[in-house]
Design brief:
Layout lengths: L22 H4 L13 H11 L3 E5 L5 E6 H10 L13 H4 L13 H11 L3 E6 L2 E7 H9 L9
Antiparallel strand pairs: 1-2, 3-4
Length: 156
């Protein structure tokens, strides 16, 4: 009596080149962006309305120049509104945004992007091409990509 294969029929695609899972395939392309001269009060309203925790700041050429986050807005509130002080007339995004922005390449493999998320402890990275903002990848986007990945013996 011969041995029977208990693993079942082999996948015909087994052994072929693996499909690349790239950042560009999973990044968000339609973003809420901010301008450096936007008021922080307007930013707070937009963050709440769109249920987001931050967004990229771009200039008139759509070049990434910073990131504004809920934390940056909270700092603004704690510095003025908490003490019942009037907001300074120059409470703009440019005054509170982070300008040292870590970006990610659109051609990066999603596994390398996951490693970058783990090592940086960031929740999202802007995707820039030739200095221009083209999208954003978040940890949730990486999780969505993971759902589409099949191993040789995994079933979807």
């Amino acid at each position: 009596m011969g041995f029977k294969n208990f693993q079942g029929k082999r996948d015909a695609s087994q052994g072929k080149d693996n499909v690349q899972f790239l950042v560009s395939d999973y990044m968000t392309k339609k973003l809420i962006t901010f301008k450096p001269d936007d008021s922080l009060d307007d930013v707070i309203h937009l963050l709440i309305a769109h249920k987001i925790s931050g967004g990229p700041v771009v200039n008139e050429k759509n070049e990434l120049i910073g990131i504004i986050s809920e934390t940056d807005c909270i700092k603004h509130i704690s510095e003025s509104k908490y003490y019942n002080m009037p907001s300074d007339s120059d409470n703009t995004v440019a005054k509170k945004m982070i300008t040292d922005v870590d970006t990610i390449d659109k051609d990066m493999n999603i596994f390398d992007a996951a490693t970058k998320f783990i090592n940086s402890k960031r929740r999202r990275f802007p995707v820039v091409e030739n200095g221009k903002l083209i999208g954003q990848i978040s940890q949730k986007d990486v999780l969505k990509a993971a759902l589409n990945i099949r191993g040789n013996t995994w079933k979807k």
